[in-house]
Amino acid sequence: MQIGIAGLGRMGMNMALRLMRGGHTVCCYNRTISKAHELARQGARAADTPAQLIDMLTPPRVLWLMLPSGEATREHIERFAGLLSPGDILVDGSNSFFKDDFAHRDLLAPMNIHYLDAGVSGGIWGLENGYCTMIGGERSDFEHIEPLLKTLAPENGYLYCGPCGAGHFTKMIHNGIEYAMMQAYGEGFALLESSPYRDHLRFDEIAALWNRGSVIRSWLLELLEAALAGNATLDGLEPFVDDSGEGRWTVLQAVESGTPAPVIAQALFERYASRGHADFSRKILAALRNQFGGHAVKKTETPNT
Ligand SMILES: NC(=O)c1ccc[n+]([C@@H]2O[C@H](COP(=O)([O-])OP(=O)(O)OC[C@H]3O[C@@H](n4cnc5c(N)ncnc54)[C@H](OP(=O)(O)O)[C@@H]3O)[C@@H](O)[C@H]2O)c1
Asked: Which among 38, 146, 178, 222 is annotated as catalytic?
């Protein structure tokens, strides 16, 4: 099957390669044009502009965007809306907020351009392992692109989740769970690290052990095993954890729907704390203990607040 891909970052590039290996024809465009030409050396057709990409594709076209969510994705949907034809399908494979999908669908609907939202999981390992893919939109559009999904995903690794937004919604919850699982592993290993046995325990060996038959084995723990190999105390790594939106949206969804999700919320807040955003509240605690109980406080060397 033929597909156009716009966005050849860590995800888009490897997805294109996997599709090509599966016998599909890939036409591609990327802001940094050299990446599209790099892919062309492996058998894709490279376009230098969005218009060129659309010209390369045979209607009804399938165009897959693999860009950062938010501005970049919205701008590209607007730009491609002026280039695509009625009956074409645009797939947003980014980690877009599911409510943005309604605006994207409504923008394309007057031109009879169909819209699918695709939540994709698999990261940089997806090229070899396949991409678990969650699709929202019209079922008939999903069925049209199914040959592509079969190639992208591992066996039985894709699902039609429901109407517009359902794919990104499912992916959002998936990522919320990921936050909580990561947090639990982090806390468990921190307890090992602060234990009386710390000088005896090998964290890399324990991660490896727990991946062999234990109840908490998982792919995340396999990744931790790999991260700890050769540097079991993670020397040189700053304890700074970024986030890219899905955890926040999951927590907002918990609030909106009145569904308790304390573990995911705590995992999100721990990431904020890792960036120093809990420092002021901790100063308040120290100051209050000092005020009411005369408890000692630690002063910074050059006080600034
Ligand atoms: N990485 C993961 O593990 C993962 C997993 C699942 C889903 N996702 C989602 O997949 C999407 C792509 O992620 P990624 O990891 O591939 O990102 P990435 O490696 O940072 O690549 C981003 C891609 O988007 C292009 N781009 C960025 N800003 C742009 C702009 N303003 N205008 C035009 N093009 C722009 C980049 O072009 P240049 O080459 O010119 O910079 C590049 O091709 C994101 O929505 C991400 O959340 C990522």
From this structure: 178
Answer whether 271 contacts ligand 1 (Cβ < 6 A).
no
Q: What is the position in ligand 1's atom list of the atom closest to the CA of 119?
A: 7
Domains of the chain: 2-163 (3.40.50.720), 172-277 (1.10.1040.10)
CA of 6 to the centre of ligand 1 (A): 10
pLDDT digits (tens, 9 = 90+) for 193-243: 999 999 999 999 999 999 999 999 999 999 999 999 989 999 999 999 999
Per the structure block, which two tokens stand in for 164?
């517009």
